[in-house]
Write a sequence for this structure.
């Protein structure tokens, strides 16, 4: 079976799935990159330095890539709004499996825009009865596409699948806590370690992590917060830290390479994921859960409904409810047993279900079913490639 994945660029969040597909017997897999990576992503360490045999570049070999897209048995298309790459295949009536984050990140009322509705019809709705399907990279994707009446009964749960690491879970959990730049003295207890990772931009709300730190310091709780990243809000955050007197408790580390981020996650007790509805997925949640962190996640981030089961493998708070965020973090910091329970359950969620190997195996089964004209709605009960149903934004009830 020939399977081709077309997207804007290859990155470290996609490589594990691609490698897993390449390892499948009887599968010829290719990733087609349509454009060079933008400068900000390069600065964040997202570049792929090692040559990958399965990657082809459309801007270097347009004719060969176009031919491959047309002749493949199945094409995954996502990560780019330029329909020109996929139009010949759609016109030929060949199977296409689109992959998309949510349509309406700002507000669903924007669906009433006449210009927007025309584009959604041309790109999606008119194929509702054709061999075109949708991988939903986020819990709110199905509801957005339901609004424009696209892909009825043809939407499947999906996401991003960063590298999955296997640990001795007891050893991982016992090594958590903040050590700073020096070793602890014998018998000294490590401060609890909080982590925030991402670009310093409005939709990710890094300021909420600093507000939470100020609240915790006021309670006299011993902790340290590392904020890994950079961006437009950096000076604002530095000013907040000074004004709240948090210079000892909060460190802005700057951007770090993916490997360095994972090292911090392996030590962190809690990861704060504070993004609003503009966060299509949020792969730091996958990585932190794989690292045994107890995640406190906004209900608005796309990954949260699929990955985080409140009170089981993490904590969920209503986006914008800062008092609820405070309480969720405080409760975890005061209850190390709960931290351990959530962290271990989070680790198992990733290693047993939401990972590249499971996604590749299931995607191949889904593809075979769709090519054979079979009903794929009941293939899997949950996790990757299970049937995705519309989820309203008020799904999370405390």
């Amino acid at each position: 079976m020939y399977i081709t994945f077309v997207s804007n660029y290859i990155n470290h969040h996609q490589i594990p799935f691609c490698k897993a597909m390449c390892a499948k017997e009887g599968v010829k897999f290719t990733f087609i990159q349509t454009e060079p990576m933008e400068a900000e992503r390069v600065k964040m360490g997202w570049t792929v330095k090692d040559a990958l045999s399965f990657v082809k570049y459309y801007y270097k070999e347009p004719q060969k890539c176009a031919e491959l897209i047309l002749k493949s048995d199945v094409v995954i298309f996502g990560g780019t709004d330029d329909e020109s790459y996929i139009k010949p295949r759609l016109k030929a009536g060949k199977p296409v499996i689109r992959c998309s984050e949510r349509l309406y990140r700002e507000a669903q009322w924007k669906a009433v825009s006449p210009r927007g509705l025309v584009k959604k019809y041309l790109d999606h709705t008119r194929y509702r009865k054709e061999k075109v399907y949708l991988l939903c990279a986020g819990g709110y994707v199905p509801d957005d596409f339901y609004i424009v009446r696209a892909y009825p009964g043809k939407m499947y749960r999906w996401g991003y699948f960063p590298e999955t690491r296997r640990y001795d879970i007891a050893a991982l959990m016992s090594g958590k806590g903040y050590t700073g730049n020096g070793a602890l003295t014998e018998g000294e207890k490590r401060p609890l370690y909080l982590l925030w990772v991402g670009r310093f931009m409005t939709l990710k709300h890094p300021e909420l992590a600093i507000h939470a730190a100020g609240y915790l310091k006021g309670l006299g709780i011993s902790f340290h917060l590392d904020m890994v990243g950079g961006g437009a809000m950096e000076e604002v955050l530095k000013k907040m830290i000074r004004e709240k007197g948090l210079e000892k408790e909060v460190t802005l580390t700057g951007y770090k390479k993916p490997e360095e981020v994972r090292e911090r996650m392996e030590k962190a007790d809690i990861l704060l994921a504070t993004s609003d509805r503009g966060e299509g997925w949020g792969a730091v949640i996958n990585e932190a859960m794989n690292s045994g962190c107890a995640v406190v996640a906004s209900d608005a981030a796309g990954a949260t409904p699929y990955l985080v089961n409140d009170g089981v493998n993490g904590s969920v708070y209503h986006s914008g409810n800062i008092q609820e965020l405070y309480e969720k973090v405080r409760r975890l910091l005061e209850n190390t047993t709960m931290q351990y329970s959530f962290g271990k359950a989070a680790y198992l969620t990733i290693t047993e279900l939401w990972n590249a190997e499971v996604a590749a195996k299931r995607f191949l089964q889904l593809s075979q079913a769709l090519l054979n004209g079979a009903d794929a709605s009941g293939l899997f009960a949950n996790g990757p490639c299970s049937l995705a149903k519309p989820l309203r934004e008020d799904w999370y009830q405390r």
Residues 113 and 151 are 20 Å apart (CA to CA). The longest strand covers residues 2-7.
